[in-house]
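Lest this sound abstract, we think one record worth quoting, the chain in one-letter code, the fold tokenised, each line plainly labelled:

>
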Amino acid sequence: MAALNRYEKAGIKKWRWLTALDERTCPVCMEKHGKVFSDPAQLPPHASHPNCRCTIVPYIETSRETARSESQITGDKELDKKITEAINEFEKLLKDEGNFSRALSRFVHGRDISAEEAEKLGEMYVQKYFGRDGGETVQNYIKHVLPYRINPKVLEKAGKAEVICELAFGYSGAYDPTARIISITPLSRDPARTFMHELGHHLEDKVCIEESRKFFIARARKHNYKLEPLSVHYEYRHIDDIYHYDGFDHVDPYAGSVYLGLYRKDHERSLAQILKDPKLIENPEIRDHLTTEMTSMGMEHFVREETMRELWVKDRELFGFILAILRG
């Protein structure tokens, strides 16, 4: 069944069987109506007789994270309401669509958009916000995929961030908030994912810096302000100058990294203070200069279907936070 294959590709492992409840429905199908299955072999044969009007729909169990009270996320009532509503609305769309990408498009636009409309948005995104550099892969992504990922009003609020190709060693991309430039190195293994990561930095800086700080600090607080060198994690053993707060290791330790000023001397001065007392991240003199990797690491998971599914499973709250950003 095409629907079953589509749902399985989206990572959905349970299905609810539905059928019309009238005199034309056979006893076999009637008995299965409303039941939840996890084994495809248990599903009744579709279209097994002339009057069969059976179908399956995705069944996604409501997680504790989705159902949690708004105050448990950041403590900011308005922000928590926005995140919670985003999670709940997306969950319903995901059940309807059985596909993260289609559900996301409907979420950010509030409706289905046509291919023609998406094509116009893609061309507008290139001309108005990103330019025509960055390499073929990134250009194709901006034109043909990004229109289904983000509402144009969000990019309008963020303003232009020119994308350029720049040969660099040691990193795959960078964002300069002052010059408004997203750099993508030709050596990047996944240019589209790198672009989404750096776009996350741009959006955090220009659209949601306060919301990002609230979310990040609330997560650090819940994990007792545990601060340690990023290099304690094997995959980042070569990085000796970045520190991170615990709270995002289940997604990626890098997401907990902190930057505490536009200039290195400012960052190092504040870093010295929080190394003595990690709770000082809440001190306004430090907090008001905080930027993170949290938003950008969340954003990069929205690059394609399987990575969206990965973040949905690993961190429902962060997924909801990014959803709220993408819709605006």
